[in-house]
Here is the input.
Amino acid sequence: DAKTTQPNSMESNEEEPVHLPCNHSTISGTDYIHWYRQLPSQGPEYVIHGLTSNVNNRMASLAIAEDRKSSTLILHRATLRDAAVYYCILSGAGSYQLTFGKGTKLSVIP
Amino acid sequence: NAGVMQNPRHLVRRRGQEARLRCSPMKGHSHVYWYRQLPEEGLKFMVYLQKENIIDESGMPKERFSAEFPKEGPSILRIQQVVRGDSAAYFCASSSTAGTGPYEQYFGPGTRLTVT
Here is the structure.
């Protein structure tokens, strides 16, 4: 499986935008980029996924570099409820195994 | 809509006992996945099941662990003769489709197993 690299931790002020980076230089042409997050003492929660084009949903936006070697998850206005570990995961079409790394622990400062 | 349900939420077992973890997928979902999260580590895939079938158990330890998803009732992850190293959070996820991806996996709140 292609590997992802994320910063161990990030901080954000409440109500400000947050940009969470992910590097995946060995991504293959058919790999999708998924983001999940895990709030303390809870199971992971799907956030967003994309292949080549930028994606938006009610939770976040996903910006994918033109060469697809990196991507950025954008939370437009961080709230205290967004404090969680965010995981960037690659998986091929048809792959059902999600490989979770260490992720980025996001702290939101009131 | 009820989400993925897991019970019990917390389970304490003595070494050598059996642990049974239950997972009810979201309504309409027929694909179930089990993951294990050891302390200070990321989640690791264990097994993928459809109704009455084990599709992929490549992440399951070779001994003491088994899983099933019967035609009726929840999926069960069974750990026989538990050891301290089995202490972890066990998460179940479900999806409505698989194989043609991408698709979302919906996770339950997990069962935290402590072996004393």
Q: What stands out?
A: Chain A touches chain B at residues 32, 34, 42-46, 49, 51, 87, 91-103 (CB under 8 Å). The beta strands of chain A are 9-13, 18-23, 31-38, 45-50, 55-56, 61-64, 70-75, 84-92, 104-109. The radius of gyration of chain A is 13 Å.
